[in-house]
Write a structure and sequence with these properties.
Blueprint lengths: L2 H10 L22 E5 L4 H6 L1 H11 L3 E4 L2 E2 L2 E2 L2 E2 H11 L2 E6 L7 E2 L4 E2 L1 H12 L4 E4 L4 H4 L2 H19 L4 E5 L16 H7 L6 E6 L10 H7 L6 E4 L1 E4 L9 E4 L8 H12 L3 E4 L9 H14 L3
Parallel strand pairs: 1-2, 1-15, 2-6, 6-9, 9-10, 10-11, 11-12, 12-15
Antiparallel strand pairs: 3-4, 4-5, 7-8, 13-14
Length: about 300
């Protein structure tokens, strides 16, 4: 993830909620059916200018599932939830998940409940046909305060209960800070703390294999350390870069062209990670057209047996 997306997430808190109504097996453990999708941030400029035309291109490439990164004023890419669902349906697409930041302000202490704003977020995700509502950020003010962090983990679990009422599941998506920040209770890395304090029956983990690389996180090691904990995965490859646009000295690139053992990672995820949703995300393109990149990425995943 580049600086522009991090700023987008931090400043707007809107990177989308997702979710399609899933069968009850969503809460019963890993499923055998695997799905490939695309995080629409990969083609963010085109989606902001022409969402319908962009989605048509992706459908023509063979994509079936997408994950959004734009939900604001109760709209996905400018469409109300019901209307966006129709757009997707007409193109043979499904929006299985999406990213929207859940903050401490989304919980109302006076009511001991979520705010109406957050409830609308979950409602719209269900209407749009999603399965997972994923928060992709943890504010820095929460990372170093033991009480605030524990309260946030409780909020995550409560959101899992809220989403479950609509046939969905709440989820968390990592960046880099989880792997270079110690938990304030001294128990270890922040990422270990998050996994230890969230109920896997209520909070899914979406592992971003690329975000963690420069901070020392290793996807293969985590998959073996926490078997069955990663229902979703952002599939990326990374190259060393000095452009300052990527994360910790790395930029994403076409799968198989970088320094990461991506094929081995997805193989292990299928074997022991409990991973059933594989979401392609490429945020840097090395001068290539983003649509050309994500088309190749999909073809490579299919060569790997998806």
């Amino acid at each position: 993830m580049d600086h522009s997306r991090r700023n987008f997430i931090k400043n707007t808190g809107l990177a989308v909620a997702g979710a399609a109504i899933l069968p009850s097996s969503l809460f019963a453990g890993p499923k055998k059916i695997e799905r490939i999708g695309l995080q629409l941030y990969s083609v963010r400029d085109a989606m902001s200018k022409d969402p319908l035309g962009s989605l048509k291109k992706l459908a023509n490439m063979g994509y079936v599932n997408v994950e959004h990164a734009n939900y604001t004023d109760r709209k996905f890419y400018g469409y109300a939830a019901k209307d966006f669902k129709k757009v997707l349906d007409d193109l043979g697409l499904q929006m299985h998940s999406g990213h929207t930041v859940m903050t401490a302000e989304d919980w109302d202490d006076s009511k001991n409940d979520f705010t109406d704003k957050w409830k609308f977020t979950v409602d719209d995700a269900a209407v749009a046909g999603q399965s997972f509502v994923i928060s992709p950020w943890l504010d820095e003010s929460l990372r170093h305060d033991k009480d605030k962090l524990k309260k946030t983990m409780d909020q995550f679990n409560k959101c899992g209960e809220l989403c479950k009422k609509s046939g969905m599941k709440f989820g968390y998506h990592n960046h880099n800070f989880e792997f270079n920040t110690q938990a304030p209770d001294g128990s270890g890395l922040l990422y270990d703390y998050i996994l230890a304090n969230t109920d896997p029956g209520l909070v899914a983990q979406q592992m971003d294999v690329g975000n963690m690389l420069g901070a020392g996180g290793r996807a293969l090691e985590l998959l073996k350390k926490y078997p069955g904990r990663f229902e979703l995965m952002h599939v990326k490859d990374e190259i060393k870069s000095d452009t300052g646009q990527g994360m910790d000295g790395y930029d994403s690139t076409i799968l198989g062209q970088g320094v990461m053992p991506v094929k081995e990672i997805v193989k292990e995820a299928r074997k022991s990670g409990g991973t059933n949703w594989f979401v392609i995300e490429q945020e840097s393109y090395q001068g290539k057209d983003p649509f050309d990149c994500v088309k190749i990425d999909l073809q490579i995943m299919k060569k790997w047996g998806f």
